[in-house]
Records
---
Amino acid sequence: MQQSRNALGPASLLLWVSLVLQLFAQQTLGSVVPVTEDLLGRQSGGPPVPNIPLCVPPLLTSPLTGKYPPSAVTTVQTGKNCNQYGDPPARILSNIESPDGLQDLLQICHGEIVQMTDNTGKPRAMCFYANPKSTKDKPLPLLVWLHPSLVSPSYSFPLTGIDLVRDTQSLNNEDASRLGFSYILPAGRNTEHQYPVPDNVGLGWDNWYRNLDRSSPALNADVSFVDKAISYAKAHVPVDSRRVFMSGWSNGAAMSELYAANTDGIAAAAVYSAPDPYRDSQDPCTQVPYPKFATPVRDVHNYCDLIGICTTGQYYYADLKKRYPALKQSLVVIDTLTAAIKGTDASASCDPVCQGACGVTQGLVAHLRWPATRNTDTFFAFLRSNPLPSSGTWGPP
């Protein structure tokens, strides 16, 4: 399998830029700028699909009028083909790979490109960095990082700053001498998404089909792939079995949360800007969250984010806390511009201007940046503090 050099190609980039310009005009002029039918059809190659609605009233007037967009939180199924796992498996689209994509991925991961197949027989690939300092006597942790939709790990992972500390960052709270970690960067598939344009199709993860039953022949193909990727890493480098961690960005964050909550042997997850993995605002087959394991998860959100992600993330956190009081959930809300921490857990709040399932300029800009200044004290600190117990499992929540 070859990773795409053009995963965020000219068409997708044009859509993003056009959306930013329209949102900027909305905020500046106080009006809704319509999206053209031509633009909507350009990426999908078919009939126009629902686009990101623009929040009304604009950012500057809402605090004055007290009128805010309706909350993006939804708990009602509207789909006609929902099943016990939520949505049907995502439809696979045409191949978006390029001949030199694997070389791009290799250059940013300092490791090897591993090719395999998932449980459907489809070819998959990942970047695997086996830290040479990891030994049988002193195995290092393994970090699994899932990229956002539309943007391959070749483009997104370098923005995080994680690779820069692969040999120096401690993820072990019991042995200060064990610095560094190995990591894997699995690549998603080109599928349909339950997101608005421009993210309705493209590279990503199917967190809407929530079949994580390993005994099922219809296991989610992305889950199957991540399972195999972790097994491969463990077979080719010493891995601290109590410290296999998940992380991810946006769609990859949602998949990381879903995977961590339903996979035995994952120590913890710390993710950025995750849509609710069970009840995203655009999901026609929402479900009540049902984590199988009490895996600690930290969800970092922008005070203002795209399509109400902070608001739905806060609802997800509160709902799990109410139904699973002992579950170690952590919510961190950061400043949209500076990434400074604004609130945590029960004291965290989201900007009501951005609570709707719509586009807001500053939320879009924030969503497209990884808060690297929070790596050490927010992402890595949470992972380091939450190794698996000595039993090797968190057990049910």
---
Amino acid sequence: MSKPAPKRGKGPDGEPRTYIVSFHIPKALLDALDRLVEMGVFNNRSEAIRTALFNLLREHREVLERRQMMLGYR
């Protein structure tokens, strides 16, 4: 017997695949973001923001890892 398909938007563990995050940004940043979407660089705002956040976290990965190590030694 096959497993039932996960509910829409849920992973195999039942947790959401993505989460909604709300934040405020200046109009100039929003306009620039929308221009990138209009130019076809990104499919939508969410994709652009996910990519930017991924790049930010990758850039600061060492800081995150160092912090995790420090917490592990307590």
---
Amino acid sequence: MVIAYVRVSTNKQDTESQKLEIHEYCYDNNLKIDKILSVEISATKSQEKRKIVELKNTLQKDDTLIATELSRLGRDMFEILNLVLELNQMGVKTIFLRQKELCGDEKHSKLILAIYAYLAEEERKLIAQRTKSGLEKAKAQGKRLGRPHNTLNSKYDKDTDKIKELLSKKVPVKSIWKILYEEQGRSYDGLLWFCKKRNLI
């Protein structure tokens, strides 16, 4: 069985680019994807919420796990290392498309794995620090942070730019719903409410 794992941290990011990268790799290497676990959640959340528990329960000996990069799997060096080593001990082959060095011999792979895991953790810390500094600077300048008062998160938020673009081309909300959401089972009234609440129409 071949399982793909994709994760993005915010609703402003897109899992589709990771899926496309994995599909292209599988096509080039005559692999068939049996299951895709897709998650839109921060790496700081629990393994259960990030579907890591489901992933470990699904994978068995001789299965293959594919992800675009190491950092998709965990929040820090030790978690990533432990997870990959646990999977390897189970007999699961792990493939990280942007880190092909990890597909070498066992000793070499473990060394490179440790280096990449460390760098991934440091990058996460750096991004968090930059975000914190940016928020503190904005607050010091008197800027209002977060969403406007009485505004809730919506499942349509990640598509705001796409919706705006279609509306700018005079595409009716009803047509946008048919194009993007009808097959997903989302309601037209929900999209219409979202557009009004976000002052898009």
---
Amino acid sequence: MRRKNIGKMIVLGILTPAAVVAVVVMFVYAVQEPPKQAASVISPAETISVPPQKQDPSNTVTVPIDSGAFSVSAWQLVLVNSESKMPDSFQPQITEAFGVEMDERIVDPYTALYTQALDDGISLWISSAYRSPEKQQELFEREIEQNLRQGLSEPEAEQKAETAVQRPYYSEHNTGLAIDFNGVTDDFKHDDAYEWLLDHAEEYGFVLRYPEGKEDITGIMYEPWHFRYVGPENAIRMNELDLCLEEYIEYLKLHPQEASELST
């Protein structure tokens, strides 16, 4: 140890005063300046792979349609199916238009869709839109009776009925946001109007609600005539991702960062 200390003293003795000052300055700078790290770049794929954080329900904010409507709690994304009853907080704003009743918030979008369809030589008419819970109950019981006449037991008849007609408050038609087109028949899938809707309905905020191949998710058989208003931004994104409404809502919950980006 003494040899090392003596060596250091000899070196310092040889250095000029200016050199000593320079060494001291460099030492202080090295101590104060934090080590530089390479900037990390996060790709979109890496961002999506991050597990979602649990959200506090009290922090959920309903986004009005004018600002994007990518909030899962937005009115146009209300989920109503055999397992999800229409929330008590959802109040349809029913008005008359085109010879039927519908939510007044979708009148303007539908009018624009209808007008463009006419300009393109496409004929559309509404077979069914809003239904009262009482009317829904009537249709559900009628479907059960039809199944009973086919020889099904009562539980079987009721179960089958739910794949075609929902119970009151479990049907999208109770929201006023759903529209059945041109006679409610399977043949509609061969109609030019159906192809036009598949190509253009999203521009006005409407999507095919019960697409073919999604029956296990929606709980409803393929209905080419049944379209649902979700807003243009949501409709376009749903079609891009090939998601039905049930899947899309889960997607937004798992990707809140994308919902935030798309709503700006």
